[in-house]
Amino acid sequence: MTTTAQSSPIPAIILFGSPGSGKGTQARLLQNCLRGPHISTGDMLRSHIQAGDSIGNQAQALIKSGRLVPDEMVNELVKQRLQDSDCQAGIILDGYPRTTNQAQVLLGFMQSFGYQAAVVYLMVDYEVIVARLSGRRQCPVCGTLYNMKTNPPKVPGICDLEGAKLVTREDDRESVIRERLNQYEVQTRPLLDFFRQAGVPMLEIKAADASPEEISQEICRSLHSAGLMLTTNNGSR
Ligand code: ADP
User: Which residues, judged by CB distance below 6 Å to any ligand atom, belong to the binding site of ligand 1?
Assistant: First the structure.
């Protein structure tokens, strides 16, 4: 990865929405039609926690209580990740940026690494969000998300892809869910205005009343008609 802006900008899709809006699920499905890695700061932080390193130790208590980790920590993780060679065709960001500071820093990265950012805003009503988060289960191996009611695995409690026993994330407990939604309202939602003012293109996607696959197709169609499509897996635009 060079640090000079390239002539043809590299697409950077920012999946935006409250916790439980389907960012992680959509990031995985979008890889069927977009090229570029799924970069989830939540997943990165959880692997540091699993590794028991110093980033993990600093992040653990904050995540457990539903608060955000410090901006400098996630900004640095993303900066490092953007320098990996698989980011050269495009990237799909999930859960980053979440504060004005992170958004400002990200736009700086976009400029110096030669990316063109576009926001995909997943719009979901509050009651749906709470129902989704409280029934959520995750595969500890591949990270695939399920919901006991709305998107169950084929065999109860078992990941369709890995056969592993699904787990409930510690921050999916009710009191923690409330705090995460509060953090979103106070710190993250205002970024919609920030992006609009910065002139970052934004697609608004109704992300509640259709299946995850249908929503993913809708996102691909919208990106395509807005001329924001990443290079597809077979190499065409
Ligand atoms: P969700 O979007 O459902 O809340 P994530 O996996 O994206 O789930 O994030 C889980 C937790 O990780 C957050 O509640 C927060 O504590 C931490 N985290 C993830 N991304 C960021 C970020 N960009 N800035 C600060 N904290 C973050």
Answer: 19-20, 23, 41-42, 45, 62-63, 66-69, 74, 95-96, 98, 102, 171, 180
